[in-house]
Design brief:
The structure is a single chain. The protein is mostly beta strands. Helix content is about 5%, strand content about 45%. The chain has a single domain, classed as Sandwich (Jelly Rolls). It has one helix at about 280-290; strands at about 10-15, 25-30, 30-35, 40-45, 55-65, 75-80, 85-90, 95-100, 105, 110-115, 120-125, 135-145, 155-160, 165, 170-175, 175-180, 180, 190-200, 200-205, 215-220, 225, 230, 235-240, 245-250, 255-260, 265-270, 275. The strands form six sheets. It has a seven-stranded antiparallel beta sheet, with no helix packed on it. A seven-stranded antiparallel beta sheet has the order 3-4-5-12-7-10-13, with no helix packed on it. The chain starts with 10 loop residues before the first strand and ends in a 32-residue tail after the last helix. Bound molecules: manganese (II) ion. Manganese (II) ion (MN) binds near residues 2, 81 and 123.
Length: about 325
């Protein structure tokens, strides 16, 4: 997915000043964003005015369930990325990914498409012609730490992620590790991404790492998260300092839990780029506009996305917290 905002704000992503924020309940209400002129509406809960990152997770878009038969569905033309990983996760439907490395990969519910941009990549995402009617999913970004952010780009598809099932609760380890079971997805900083599926009238306790901060997003139904009744829409920031998390559901429900070690680098997010300062973002933008560095996406029926104009002010990292 792309940030298709035609006038994107400068976003300075910072983690908290230290990892000792402790357990909290902080409800981050998202904003509705249109993905382009033919696009779908998504709810963006990260970055948020009050909290830019959770671990290295720096972008959370949720979309659907939406009927995509008859309309264009998801149509995100070729666009660039730097300094991040895109994490594509579906609850329903299909999305076809193409990138400048020549990968063409359909992602389906329960599978992970993970694209590591490193120094430069471009890709498109679209609803395929023979798509199922309902599209429902999330698009997440993970910031790469400074030591890895200029690595070669690569793409991973994981169709067989580990699923831990117990007493009406199934947990898919999308990224990272839970209770000694690890996803094969490549990560560059200590983090976790889990999808927890709860049957009706179950309670569960998930083991957490006290040194991680966490956030929870309901994908379907409603879940009591540490006693907080959480429905679809907002992201519940849970802070750090927890060794477990109580979950419960009255009806069949699905929850995304993301977490990680608080990210202690300042990063500038602008449009689809993650960089470290203004000049770097200017260079990324010029390289995309000139056709250099980002390669070519073959097979997408449409033009590539032009970069929006830069803001008049200089993009620069600010404090660690808003
Ligand atoms: Mn993208």
């Amino acid at each position: 997915m792309s940030n298709l905002d035609l006038a994107p704000d400068e976003t300075v992503c910072t983690g908290p000043a230290d990892g000792s924020a402790g357990p909290v309940h902080e409800l981050l209400v998202g904003r509705e964003v249109m993905l382009g002129p033919r696009g779908m509406e998504v709810t963006r809960t990260l970055p948020h005015r009050d909290r830019r990152m959770i671990g290295a997770w720096c972008f959370v878009d949720a979309y659907g369930p939406e009927n995509v038969v008859g309309g264009a569905g998801m149509q995100v033309p070729p666009h660039p990325h730097t300094g991040l990983q895109t994490v594509s996760w579906l609850v329903g439907g299909d999305v076809l990914h193409r990138d400048s490395l020549g990968n063409r990969q359909l992602v389906r519910p329960g599978q992970l498409n993970l694209m590591t941009a490193g120094r430069a990549i471009s890709h498109s995402e679209e609803s395929p012609a023979d798509r199922p009617p309902i599209l429902h999913g999330v698009q997440l970004w993970v910031a790469l730490p400074n030591r890895d952010r200029e690595i070669d780009p690569h793409f991973e598809h994981h169709a067989d992620l580990p699923v831990l099932t117990e007493h009406g609760v199934s947990t898919t380890v999308i990224m990272g590790e839970l209770g000694g079971t690890s996803s094969a997805a490549q990560v560059y900083s200590p983090l976790v991404g889990l999808e927890v599926t709860l049957a009706a009238d179950v309670v569960a306790t998930l083991p957490l790492r006290p040194d991680f901060e966490y956030g929870a997003l309901v994908l379907s139904g409603g879940v009591r998260v540490d006693g907080v009744a959480l429905g679809r829409g907002p992201l519940l920031y849970l802070g750090s300092g927890r060794s477990e998390l109580a979950l419960g559901a009255g009806h069949p429900s699905r929850l995304l839990l993301i977490g990680g070690e608080p990210f202690d680098e300042q990063i500038v997010m602008w449009w689809n780029f993650v960089g470290r300062d203004h000049d770097e973002i200017v260079r990324f933008r010029e390289e995309w506009e000139s056709g250099a560095q980002f390669g070519t996406v073959v097979g997408y029926a449409g033009n590539r996305l032009p970069a929006p104009p830069l803001p008049n002010s200089r993009l620069r990292p600010r404090g660690r917290l808003p």
